[in-house]
Amino acid sequence: MTENLRFPAEWESQSAILIAWPHADTDWADRLGQVEETYIALVAAITRFQPVVICVADDDLETYAEMRLRSNRVDMQRVRFVTVAYDDTWLRDSGPITLKNADGSFRLLDFRFTGWGGKFEASRDDQLVGALFDAGLFADAQREVIDFALEGGAIDTDGQGTLLTTWQCLHERHPDTSREQLSARLASWLRQDRVLWLDHGYLEGDDTDAHVDTLVRFASPSSIVYQACDDINDSHYGELQAMGRELEALRTREGAPYTLFPLPWAQPVMDDGRRLAASYANYLILNGAVLMPAYGDRADDAAREVLAAAYPDREIVQVPCRPLIWQNGSLHCITMQLPAGLLASA
């Protein structure tokens, strides 16, 4: 077989979205009822446009999740369950990073998942890709295990060989590896020929060490959406302004500046004195739609308008995500797209 692998952009055609249903043995236990409502809204939104694959821990959880979804009139013809063990539900970081071959086959990159540098127990999550592969979820695919800590939320691609990432995250995971070495490894594994690094940008309450998907996203090979901050009195102002200047200095493959779409800044969301990471950049791209996190903030609708301008050919759908940021992530963090053709028949 001739290998001609490529890392597809998220806006390319998808077969399904992969998620994991929260349960009492995950970190959601204390607020399970609230977060279940977000998952129901998420599945309802996804199934308007395409299938969703839901990981469940056992048969009882599948029965319960199906009951909750049916009672909310979700299109169950587009829902598929797979039983697998998991520590938590952040599948952007524990799920497969998929490369597509020119012949239509796929390569599932199974990087090490360490619970964001050992912050949380992650032994079952680290085995998730292998468990899904063994369950027969994927069609014409090979699995490649890579002994290197990398989370899906730490990288973004334009689908044409340019990777975007943050130095803070990758340096935190691999402190003894130089930027040049990291660039070469990422480019090799992910079949990229350009790696763009951001040195600025963070969110309070984010325990991923500045994942790029909470800050900056490609909207096309020539455009970028990013989380801005225009409140000079906010603690994020200086860092996000510096990140904005970095983005202005970046150039496309053709040498042109990127078209930039700055997202509005939500008011601080506090929980027992702790600020939560309410980012609008953590949206999810579907076939024909963009699902955006809504936080019950006056900036929600303004963020929707920015995304509508960045993705003019897609419907922008708000999903209530305030319960998610209690665990320091949002919509993109709990999902992983499966490219078209990857999902095996049920």
TrEMBL record:
Cited SUPFAM superfamilies: Pentein
Entry keyword set: Hydrolase
Database matches in InterPro entries: Peptidyl-Arg-deiminase_porph
Domain of life: Bacteria
Pfam families: PAD_porph
One Gene Ontology term from the biological process aspect of the record: putrescine biosynthetic process
GO MF term set: agmatine deiminase activity; protein-arginine deiminase activity
The protein, known as: Agmatine deiminase
Lineage: Bacteria, Pseudomonadati, Pseudomonadota, Gammaproteobacteria, Lysobacterales
